Amino acid sequence: MKNCILVTNVDSLLGYALSFRFLEDWNRELEENYSSLKEKTEFRLLCRERQGMEDLEMLGAKIIEVADYENQEKIKEFMNGVSYVMFLPENSNQKIKQGETVIQCAKDQGVEYVTMFSYMGVDYAKNEHKHFNEYCHLEKFVAKHFNNKSHCIMRSSMWHQFFYYYGPMIEDENKIQLPMREKTEFGSIDLNDLVDAVYNLSSFSDIKNDTQQHIYNNLAQLYIANLRERNKTLFEFTPRHNITPEKLIQAVTDGLEHKNMTYEKTSSETMYDYLRRIHNDNRFRQRPIYQCATDIGEDQFKLNEDRPYTFPLGRNLNNCVIEDIVEYWKLADSGKEQHETDDLERAIGRHSTTVDQFFKHNKDQFNRFR
Questions:
Q1: Count of CB atoms within 10 A of residue 65's CB?
Q2: Entry pTM
Q3: Alpha-carbon distance 126 to 149, whole Å?
Q4: Quick check: 211 pLDDT over 90?
């Protein structure tokens, strides 16, 4: 019986956040119909290093270090008993070879369903967009090996949480630099909304018939059935309304109560150098301790504040990730990140978090950079 859910590249911010979101609810008291499914389910998380994965292990995940994603024998071993794969391509210069190995091994081992995570704009990538071309290639590779009932692609806009990396610049220089013009429109969504969307699409079915719920033997099978029910191979998670750098500066000004904030278009090289420095910045070595209590009572939570697992660390910024980010902004500057859909809000069942709300709700976290 295949009872395993496998997530790749859990070293990444999205991989970690997705895993935490699913495991968090897996550990909660579920209604009776789901309790037996939960007990029969295994979560396998693939990462380069176990360090930093302690919280996920405490939540019950099986953490597996991968020395070589191109080692077919090992990857097949990891895929044994796996029914559902959340495929996040590796942040490496061998993304295509490693990704093809993962997908081919999943196919060979009889994996039933694959969800691949990608970026908005990859279908517009040109030769100079190396990394986005690789994502586009892997999207096609997944579709080639898994039919429309056995896979989906989830693309997303840039996440609001990226702007935490600009906390030091905001505090020290009162400005934000991006390689795009001030009037350029682009999409930005909240990472908390994204992981909620993925969880909801996987976990909740439109079918309320309890009898049908009982036909599944574990959560992997239930997630697959719910995703198949959506009958959709491409989800595009974008904001309902795009913003511009001009509006971004206004959001920072209002949300963080910063006066005289300015925006400056910069080169891709300057942005790359800045993010490389952030990679080694001590302020991004560990996730912050979040203020959980409100003024009303210590046992009530600030629901609007970011969840700790969505805070980006310096270790998430390797060279390939930085190059991905730079490519995103270059595509945005060419007008390729303006697409708007309602996929995100339909999945979360509420209005998505705007960039204005993000800065306002997380003012205390930005104050840490002073």
A1: 11
A2: 0.92
A3: 30
A4: no
